[in-house]
Amino acid sequence: MNNNNVVDFESHEKKSKRDLAIYILPNLFTSGNLFCGFFSVIASLKGDFKKAALALFIASVFDFLDGRVARMTKTYSRFGEEYDSLADVISFGVAPAVMMYLWALKPYGRIGWLAAFLFLACGALRLARFNVQAQSIEKRHFQGLPIPMAAGVIASSVLLFVDYFSEGTKNIYMLSITFVLAFLMVSEIRYRSFKDFDLKDTRSFGLLVGVVLLLIIFAIHPELALFTLFTTYTASGVVLHLVKVYKKFPFNPRHPSV
Fold it and tell me: Residue 233 CB: number of other CB atoms within 10 A?
């Protein structure tokens, strides 16, 4: 037998074992994500929407950590990736859909629950597309708004309205933002992943100043800070996409054809 074939077979066998491996540490964080998503659903059913929203923020922290821990400890596996996606569907798809339906969309009847379902369906489609394209697309950008960020917009909106706005203004806002977020998740608009962000880069000083300002706002008005953070990220992809489209138009003074 050819030695190269033996090496390829052994390499393939090791990769298969790694894909099927169930590593405890990163999957504990994923389980924490799933638990918070389920807790959010229960809190929404009880009418405690503030707790439901806070649970989604904690879920997003667990979701952020599980991938980082897997890469740092070299415990990445295909099992973990699939488990993470299933947990994300619950925490950032089902939980916010139930929360916004019970909190603001229920008065719209069939349109309300269909809007909530559209958010859930587009989030699931976005996750499925990400899993299929994970090995073929660049790591610096996401295609479409990530579902945890979409859920973050919903959760931060709930906190903001509960503490700062009257109940009568929430319904039309939530109905509108639900359709917008659903579209952005399945769109071709690119969003920065920040996976290439280097904390040792001296050009990070401006970002550090921004983080300090955000922390000050968070200390004074945490609900406003969270809403600002999630909506700014959501709007950033749209703005950069429009700038990119504008540069391609012939009437643009900087277009090569002018």
Answer: 17
Measured distance CA(211)–CA(19) in Å, rounded = 37
- Contact between 26 and 87 under an 8 Å Cβ cutoff? The reply is no
Which helix (H) or strand (E) segment holds residue 142: the answer is strand 141-143
* Strand-pair partners of 75: none
Tokens (6 digits) for 71? 């890469």
pLDDT digits (tens, 9 = 90+) for 212-253: 877 887 778 888 889 988 999 999 999 988 888 777 766 555
Domain 3-194 CATH (choose: 1.10.357.140, 3.40.50.620, 1.20.120.1760, 3.30.1490.20): 1.20.120.1760
Residue ranges with strand state E in 24-102:
none
CB 136 within 8 A of CB 156: no
Contact residues for 216 (Cβ-Cβ < 8 A; gap 6+): none
Of the two residues 110 and 244, the one the predictor is more confident about is 110
Torsion angle of alpha carbons 125, 128, 132, 134, nearest 10°? 100
Give the separation between CA 85 and CA 32, rounded to whole angstroms: 13
* Token digits of residue 256: 């090569």
